[in-house]
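Q: what sequence does this backbone want?
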């Protein structure tokens, strides 16, 4: 192998860019896609009826695996790292906080808009055709489940400039306050709302006042904590720790997780602690930041190779499209599979498991083809941003965008909420029209 294959040129890698963070982001998205594929078990019951199950959740090892495979906190850690770098660049260019927030809102609302329009049309058509509402709800609720990330990430990014100032002034005290607030929300939700008041969670597809709604404030406290950990990662705090100190952080973090789930209220599965987020996600953020730092040397060596760079840049250029559209594409491909005159592998069987990696490649390839058109929504236009944008318009755009997404996550995706979310994304884009494109960090 030539030295050129191992030593990227500045044209390939921007100066000062940490490619291990790009690798982590891409690996997280691919892992999310694969996990959702293993969740989607579709086959035929003995009587020939359609069978839909969450296959991987029924496996005896699933709970233990979720303590490692739930990498959503790492998304926010890496997002915090990117926000700190991006904010410094924005300040150097003379950008205001409002402009910074508007650019990030546009980056999320633009890719989300066609997805919400698609959901609105499809769910509207199923109503007109009279398709079994129970079947539609089962599929729609599952397909809409990853959308919580849009609201949570937007809130974290919108508050990033404020949180960075607090980080610079108060350091680790900000982490302690956020963690204490997250634990207080959990205690109120589990002990008072669930214990004293006896309020149960809202069933999937139902509406009303459920126990989980009292955990919604942790969207702010937990994910801001994870983002704050990303600030420490950017500042080099984790790099300054020795390997054994990083191992102690990981071991101590898992010990803390065990202590939390032993208290009651928290689920043993880390997936169950993801919505609404509990303090366990904050602990996982520290564990995963430590693990990423511990693996920095081999990951850096990997990212010096052309194949790894090519794969990361290829997938990374369509990352939001892949995240948003992979579940609809999984459902479309399964639908095609059901129409073909071929036997379906039994969900959970040996053949089914062996074909999951193949299905992953097919899903990624299909979403990539779709992205050839959708990629235009991942680009933020340059022209037309007001020189001094209104603070009220910026705040309003963020609130309008995230509110229906939180409702979808709480109650499940359906036709009315899909339509409201599409209108809200359009309104947010109108308020952020012409947000200037900046270099992605």
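A:
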């Amino acid at each position: 192998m030539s030295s050129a294959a191992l030593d990227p040129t500045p044209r390939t890698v921007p100066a000062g860019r940490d490619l291990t963070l790009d690798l982590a982001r891409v690996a997280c998205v691919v892992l999310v896609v694969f996990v959702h594929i293993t969740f989607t078990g579709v086959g035929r019951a003995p009587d020939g009826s359609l069978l839909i199950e969450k296959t991987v959740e029924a496996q005896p090892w699933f709970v233990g695996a979720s303590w490692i495979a739930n990498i959503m906190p790492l998304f926010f850690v890496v997002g915090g790292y990117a926000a700190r770098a991006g904010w410094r660049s924005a300040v150097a260019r003379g950008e205001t906080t409002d402009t910074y927030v508007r650019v990030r809102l546009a980056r999320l609302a633009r890719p989300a808009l066609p997805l919400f329009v698609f959901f609105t049309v499809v769910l509207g058509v199923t109503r007109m055709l009279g398709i079994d509402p129970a079947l539609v709800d089962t599929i729609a609720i599952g397909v809409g489940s990853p959308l919580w990330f849009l609201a949570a990430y937007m809130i974290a990014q919108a508050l990033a400039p404020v949180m960075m100032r607090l980080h610079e002034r108060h350091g680790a005290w900000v982490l302690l306050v956020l963690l204490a607030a997250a634990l207080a929300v959990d205690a109120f939700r589990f002990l008072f709302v669930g214990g004293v008041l006896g309020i149960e969670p809202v069933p999937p597809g139902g509406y009303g006042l459920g126990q989980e709604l009292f955990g919604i404030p942790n969207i702010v406290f937990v994910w801001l904590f994870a983002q704050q950990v990303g600030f420490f990662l950017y500042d080099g705090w984790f790099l300054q720790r020795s390997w054994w100190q990083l191992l102690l952080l990981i071991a101590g973090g898992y010990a803390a997780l065990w202590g939390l789930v032993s208290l009651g209220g928290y689920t043993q599965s880390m997936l169950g602690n993801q919505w609404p987020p509990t303090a366990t996600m904050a602990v996982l953020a520290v564990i995963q930041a430590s693990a990423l730092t511990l693996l920095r040397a081999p990951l850096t060596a990997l990212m010096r190779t052309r194949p790894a760079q090519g794969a990361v840049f290829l997938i990374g250029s369509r990352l939001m499209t892949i995240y948003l559209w992979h579940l609809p594409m999984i459902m479309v491909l399964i639908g095609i599979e059901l129409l073909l005159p071929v036997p379906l592998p039994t969900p959970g069987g040996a053949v089914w498991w062996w074909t999951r990696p193949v299905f992953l490649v097919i899903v990624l390839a299909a979403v990539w083809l779709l992205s050839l058109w959708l990629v235009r929504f991942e680009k933020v236009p340059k022209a037309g941003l007001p020189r001094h944008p209104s603070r009220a318009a910026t705040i309003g755009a963020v609130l309008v965008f995230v509110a229906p997404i939180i409702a979808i996550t709480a109650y499940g995706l359906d036709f009315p909420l899909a339509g409201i979310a599409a209108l809200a994304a359009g309104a947010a884009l109108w308020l952020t029209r012409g947000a200037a494109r900046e270099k992605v960090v």
